[in-house]
Amino acid sequence: MDPFLTARAFIGMAIHYVMSQEIYGMKKLFHFPHHKVVDTLADLFLTGLREVPEAHGRPE
């Protein structure tokens, strides 16, 4: 897995969250503590990176 692309994917998730909160006004509808957002994004990202053998039907 390319580390540069992996880092961009993680930053993209965080930026999307901030944009939806600040630009699109989602913080008026939903408010989560910062530590919960960080923990959730990190857990979601890292869990999604776990390798599952042949999950996509293609050899590594």
Summarize the structure.
The chain has helices spanning 3-22, 34-48. It is mostly helical.
- The class by helix and strand makeup works out as mainly alpha
Determine the number of helices (DSSP H or I, runs of at least 4 residues): 2
Rg is: 15 Å
Uncertain runs are none
> How much of the sequence is in beta strands?
under 5%
What's the helix-strand series? HH
Portion of residues within helices: 55-70%
Strand element count: 0
What's the end-to-end separation, in Å? 10 Å
Topology:
Blueprint: H1 3-22, H2 34-48
Plain-language structure description:
The chain is built from two helices and no strands. By secondary structure, the protein is an all-alpha fold. It has a domain at 19-46. The model has no long low-confidence stretch (mean pLDDT 84).
Characteristics:
60 residues, mainly alpha
